[in-house]
Automatic annotation (TrEMBL):
NCBIfam families per the UniProt record, alphabetical: SigE-fam_strep, sigma70-ECF
Superkingdom of source: Bacteria
Keyword Ribosomal protein: no
Organism (species): Kitasatospora aureofaciens
Entries under Pfam families matching the protein: Sigma70_r2, Sigma70_r4
Protein name: HTH luxR-type domain-containing protein
CDD domains in alphabetical order: Sigma70_r4 (cd06171)
């Protein structure tokens, strides 16, 4: 155990000497890449953490080239992540919404409530048939039941949904046989 400890101490000393001798150069490189001194410090720190984990392999090669490459890769990774996230702006875009989101949420809540009144099998058949857009045969195969069972279960479930008081059409009356119930979750 003493030999490993000595090796670790020697590697730590070598790494500390490397950071002391090359840290400024790496930081300057990162500042030039990012244009932001604080971001540059983060990138160099992250690169040095990675280099420390593999220092035993790096010391034989050109360590500054190896760590410089890590800094460049860290910056590239940061840039990729930056492009894929929202950035704050001074002005919010002034675009009207295509639909009333509150109304859509209310309709969705009503649909969930109505589906909650169905039995588990009825709810599963309705969701697979209309939300999953499966054929009656595909629903039957999925659930391992006869196609006729799917038809009768679907008929029973749709009758319950049509009679549900909150699922009224736009005229305010009870939902009729011709009312379209859009299943969006």
């Amino acid at each position: 155990m003493g030999v490993k400890r000595e090796q670790r101490q020697r590697q730590d000393a070598e790494f500390s000497a490397f950071v002391a001798g090359s840290g400024r150069q790496l930081l300057r490189l990162a500042e030039l890449l990012t244009g932001d001194p604080e971001r540059a410090k983060d990138i160099v720190q992250s690169a040095l953490e990675r280099a420390y984990l593999h220092w035993h392999r790096i010391t034989g090669d050109d360590p500054i080239a190896y760590v410089r490459r890590i800094v460049v890769n860290q910056h590239r990774d940061w840039w990729r992540r930056l492009r894929n996230r929202e950035l704050p702006t001074d002005h919010a875009p002034d675009r009207p919404l295509a639909e009333d989101l509150a109304e859509r949420q209310a309709e969705r809540a009503l649909l969930h409530q109505a589906l909650g009144t169905l039995t588990r099998r009825e709810r599963t058949v309705v969701v697979l048939r209309y939300y999953g857009d499966l054929t009656e045969a595909a629903v039957a195969a999925e659930l391992g039941i006869a196609r006729g069972t799917v038809k009768s279960t679907l008929n029973r479930a749709m009758s319950k949904l049509r009679a549900h008081p909150e699922l009224a059409d736009r005229t305010g009356g009870p939902a009729g046989a011709t009312t379209h119930i859009e299943v969006t979750v």
